[in-house]
Amino acid sequence: MTLHNHKEWLDSLKVGDEVAILEGSYGVTIAHVSSRTPTGWIRVGNEEFNSDGSIRGKDAHKGLYPVTEKHHRVVILRRIHNAIDRRVLEKLSLDQLQRISIIINE
Q: 22-45: per-residue pLDDT in tens?
């Protein structure tokens, strides 16, 4: 995405639009625009972003971008990784474990 296209995309954002918040090496969060200010600020949850997509007054490595399939995959994988630990797996039935194994090995 060119800088011009990114600016056009940011300018077109409205309340409820889905955005990716890229957080440097920390990954990605998918969220929705909460509000827009007359000066062009973009609120997402309790964070405010400048009209250029950079976060206001905080971590310079955090910004808004269009959501891609890759972003959704990263979020889903993180959710699965966080949800599955030894305690969870030990509670599953043999049938459930076999179904998970089949999906993983596809």
A: 987 778 999 999 999 999 899 999
